[in-house]
Specification:
By secondary structure, the chain is mainly alpha-helical. It contains nine helices and no strands.
């Protein structure tokens, strides 16, 4: 496998899999807390009629996503501050080069092409539309403010948060504990499993988890190949999420 292993970390580094656990705990806690806060605000302002599972209000969606950043961004910051080198760049590779951006764009569109092929295969086998965990985007509206907020949250903020955690803290912790192969595969599988949509069929959830795990595999390999820098993976993740947001917007205004 090309590139240096993510586990090539100074021996004084004390962060590891325990910090991954704390980060995930804060991720779920933050999502639940901010979603409940959004629901309470909607109900208090007379918006309870819109609180339907098939049409989530923009406030619920945005606060739910941002709430998860408490663990995805917050705990890596804590880990580097108290158990590492005091730098997200040094500990977790949060740095860009122009070459990283270029390869990230290519990897992002390649990942989308793979997911399209898998979706077509699903349609050919089942005769139904391919499952997606981004379907909620079409339900929150298509106005310019809505699209701008969703783009900033899902296409810009989420790639930074998720790459910092999954290809930063998680993959490096797995590599530190075992080896680069375990780090790449393990981080990709967890990344996929956490994106399976609740409420879908078992087959649909497995499809979403599998496609997202393939995204994670591409992002992990790109990170390893780019000397552990997250710039390429963040760019590729931006391309994937940004394309989905824009496609739902285009479909919604037709």
């Amino acid at each position: 496998m090309p590139g240096p292993a993510p586990r090539a970390i100074p021996p004084e580094i004390r962060w590891g899999l325990g910090d991954v656990g704390w980060g995930l705990l804060l991720f779920f806690t933050g999502q639940v807390a901010t979603t409940l806060l959004a629901l309470a605000l909607m109900a208090a302002t007379g918006g309870q009629d819109t609180l339907r599972p098939d049409q989530p209000p923009l406030l619920v969606v945005v606060l739910g996503v941002v709430g998860g950043w408490l663990g995805l961004i917050g705990w890596p910051v804590v880990a580097t501050r108290f158990k590492g080198q005091g730098s997200l760049r040094k500990d977790f590779g949060l740095v860009f080069t122009w070459a990283d951006v270029g390869w990230g764009v290519l990897a992002g569109f390649a990942s989308l092409a793979i997911s399209i092929l898998l979706s077509l295969l699903w349609v050919a086998i089942t005769g139904a539309d391919a499952p997606s965990n981004a379907g909620f985007l079409a339900e929150v509206g298509t106005g310019p403010v809505v699209v701008l907020v969703l783009f900033a949250t899902i296409a810009v903020g989420t790639p930074i948060a998720e790459e910092l955690f999954f290809r930063g803290l998680l993959m490096r912790s797995l590599g530190k504990r075992w080896n680069v192969r375990v780090a790449v595969v393990g981080s990709s599988l967890l990344f996929g499993s956490l994106h399976a949509t609740a409420g879908t069929s078992v087959g649909g959830a497995l499809f979403i988890a599998g496609v997202t795990a393939l995204y994670g595999l591409v992002l992990a390999l790109l990170t390893v190949w780019r000397d552990g820098r997250l710039g390429g993976a963040i760019t590729a993740h931006f391309v994937i999420n940004g394309t989905q947001v824009l496609l739902f917007f285009v479909a919604g205004v037709r």
